[in-house]
Amino acid sequence: MKKLIQLVIVFFTFANAIGQSFNPNLASKLQQKLDALVSSNPNTKGMAASVYYPGQGIWTGASGLSYSGHPITADMEFGLASNSKLFTSVMLLKLAEQHVLSLEDSLHEWLPNYNNINPNVTIRQLLNHRSGIDDMFSTQAHLDSILEKHDRIWKPEEVLKWIGPMRFTPGTNFYYSNTNYILAGLIVKSATGQSIAKLIRDSLLTPLQLDSTFFDVEEAPVGTISHRWYNEIDFHDTSRLSLNSAGGPAGAIFSTVNEMAQWYHALLDGNILSPSSLAELTNFLTPGNYGLGFAKYTFFGNLCWGHGGQTLGYKTRMIYDPCMKAVVCGLSNSFPSASDGITASLYQVLVDYLPACPGLISGLTTVCQGQSNVVYTIPAIKNATSYLWTLPDGAQGFSTTNSINVHFGSNAVSGMISVRGVNDYGEGAIAKLAITVNPMPNAIITANGPTTICQGSKVVLTANQASSYLWNTAAKTQSIEVATAGNYIVTVTNSYGCKAVSNPTTVKVITIPGMPDPIVGQTFAVCANSSGTYSVTQVNDVQYYWTPPPGSTITQGQGTNSISINFNGNFIGGSLSVLMYNACGLGPKRKITISSVPAVPGSIVGKVYANCNATSSYSIRTVESALNYTWTTDIPGAEITTFQSPGDTAVSIKFQQFYSGYIQVSANNNCGSSAPRKLLVYGVPSVAGTIFGNTSPCAGTTQNYYIAAVTGATSYQWTVPTGSVIISGSNTNNIKVLIGANGGDVSVIAKNACGNGPIKKLTITVPCQSIKQPDDMGLSLSVYPNPCNESVHLSFNETKFGTGLIQITDFKGTLLQEFQHAYGSGRNTAIVQLNGISSGIYSLHWISNDKIKTVKLIKINSN
Known about the structure:
The chain is an alpha+beta fold. The protein folds into seven domains: 12-353, 3-Layer(aba) Sandwich (Beta-lactamase); 366-438, Immunoglobulin-like (Sandwich), CATH 2.60.40; 445-510, Immunoglobulin-like; 530-595, Immunoglobulin-like (Sandwich), CATH 2.60.40; 605-682, Immunoglobulins (Immunoglobulin-like, Sandwich), CATH 2.60.40.10; 702-764; 777-859, Immunoglobulin-like (Sandwich), CATH 2.60.40.2550. The protein is built from twelve helices and 58 strands. Strands 3-2-1-12-11-10-9 form a seven-stranded antiparallel beta sheet, sandwiched between helices. Strands 14, 16, 19, 20 and 21 form a five-stranded mixed beta sheet that branches. A hairpin with a 3-residue loop joins strand 1 (46-53) and strand 2. The radius of gyration is 71 Å and the shape is rod-shaped. The N and C termini lie far apart (166 Å).
């Protein structure tokens, strides 16, 4: 049943083949060749022919006469003679497939013993003519018996009596014997209980719809049978019973050229027998080159299969090219006939005009998905003007030459690469090459964390599971540890040897951001209730954090390099800062100061001291964004004169008498005024400069101390250490001092009409002691009364005449009184008036001849 279904399917294949369009150029060549050869061979009355060629279907043609006035037509039926044997062989193989019998069965298992027949001959030996059994038509006498009694029906058992002795031991040689197929027919009936004619009808002809093919004698003819000519005599009206009853399974089938082409195509295309049975059929043994029911030949250098046949009035030839898969059938209605040569010549038309059978395709048989530039080549095909390549699913490539470059896509699957030659007569036979397409592996890189890393950090990149790995770093492990920036690619290889290359994984190495570029935006005269935009240069892979000044709000852009700020109604100024940050940390801040009103002016430049009753000039550096300036002072009576042009920074001030006070200036713009810049100025002179003089004098010596003149000073006030006396210059910038026994400060104050300036000091060490004088040279000084009131008397000795100096100082060394007194040799006296000196303890100094004598004086006022 299974094979019957297969044969029904085959019918549709035939219908398609018949419906195909045969190449008109090739058809014309075939018909021309047939006509030329039939007309040139007078002994060939007529001939029908057919060609099946893959992709074109079946061509049929006819030439010559069936009989006088009636040409041969392609639909006429001809006796196949020995081309009937293939039907018998196929029937035996199908019974073997169904396990009804075995080709290795011996005759004695199915048939009685016959004279001159070795009962151990196998069915296989019958079908391949290696039985050694004599041919029933080996003598002319047997043929004469058939010709004498045309209408007799011969039984197989009668025919078997004609055979002679065995020709050789079974299986040892080849001998073509029609008797073998008579016996094969008897075995079929013995095994199935049915005649081989009925089995061929039911199992082969009917499923294949070979309706014009029949088993003569056993079945009634259908269609038109061509006249048969034997030795130039028309035997059409002579009965076929004797001949074909004797021939039976060896040669009694009739058919048309069309149905014989269908029969060969269906059989040899694998649609009737199983592959193993078909292999048995085409197992051609030597000698004889015979398989099971047909033989192997060489035509025009090509290997072919087929069979010939001849009988009373018919001669037939079948040729099959297993490379082209082409069938050529020639059926002639005469014997003798040139049909063998004519059929071969028709096959030669195919060889001469169609592209030849291709050679082997060379190229890789195992490839990988995604593999490109795979070249396949076939030797140049004779007669081909172009080439037609077909590729497995998922493979791409195109060529009309004998070489093709193929790209196997990522979805390519295993299959066949095939190619055939093409020309104006059709497409040639196909060469095929089985291609195994192995899967392409995935190549995917996975990171164990972010691929943007901080300097000094690492990230692990891992490829998906595979057989081997090769990174663009030359590493061959599945995972690599990365600490440097770059694009990382891995090539993975799977167990099939197929490779895939990953997309690059980019690793970025970043550091803590640096300081942003300077902030761009308005920084001065930014008034309250206004807005502004501030930005820094964009840097990749960072975010920004802005801190607005007090009294303002960021309304847009926080986190980016540009922000918008609203300055509230209470905004007066402050610092705007921005920093960049990333995963590695925070960068340093960039700051600017945004002011609403101008900044506090810089330092006021001008005269600080000695402004008493003077006019002085003062100035500041221009303040950015200031439109004008306001100068004021708290000094009574001072008059400020400013310049008329806006933006001027200089003024002049006329001072009266004062000790000290402030002048100040504010910068102004449209937003308001800055805080004032102040300068403390003085009417009094400035502190004196360096006091020059000996800082380590000896007691009893006279020393000079002086300073540079102080600007604006009208006089000076000096003080000296206790025991030392200013001899001269006490109101000038240069004094002469008689050094006493104590160390201390020499100080000076510059003075003018507005008061005393700051004190300047010079410290002297404890004086060294001078050389002691003889007693008679010493001074003897006494004062009385002591304590005293309004005056005091002095008594002292001198050794010679001269003028001395009497000084009264307080405990700080401040000179209170000073006057000269002439003296003589011996005891001297003097009265000193103490008017204006308050009660207290004072020092009284007598200075003469660069010597000084000091006594303590107590003053007590009477009130």
